Amino acid sequence: xxxxxxxxxxxxxxxxxxxxxGRADLDIRVTARAAVLHDVEIDTIPFTTVSEIVAAQHESFxxxxxxxxxxxxxxPLGARILRVADAxxxxxxxxxxxxxNVIAWEKGRSSHRAVSISEAKKAxxxxxxxLFDPNVVNVFLSMPDGVWADLMQHISTLPGPLA
Length: 163
Description:
CATH class: Mainly Alpha
Shape: globular
Helix content: 40-55%
Number of helices: 7
Strand content: 5-15%
Number of strands: 2
CATH superfamily: Hypothetical protein af1432
Distance between the termini: 13 Å
CATH architecture: Orthogonal Bundle
Largest sheet: 2 strands, antiparallel
Radius of gyration: 15 Å
């Protein structure tokens, strides 16, 4: 995640998912903080729980992720939520998340395109049980598209930097 606006969106998405999953307020805030810091060096993060989430953000539910190859419930729930939120933001804005939004524009070269909320939901659902926690995905899929559309539209009005 390169920009402040993207960090704000991912943090907001983690908060919406956390609430829908019934997480405690503190857990929601910790995961949102991890979303803001998830592209910095882990050893520079002063909060242990946040750094654990950041360290596990690339773990896959089926155990094929990195850096430790954690699987299923061994991956912190905050990291499993962050993984879905980050993929959603990437799909909606055209960052490369899952390969489903690739546009081949020349032999051997490609770029990424932003997709609709509906397309993003389908891409995330296809990766459920592989990259993503099926429970987090099911809750995500049950949430109205308007939640994500509203967050995308209004997140740029949040004041100031997050970190």
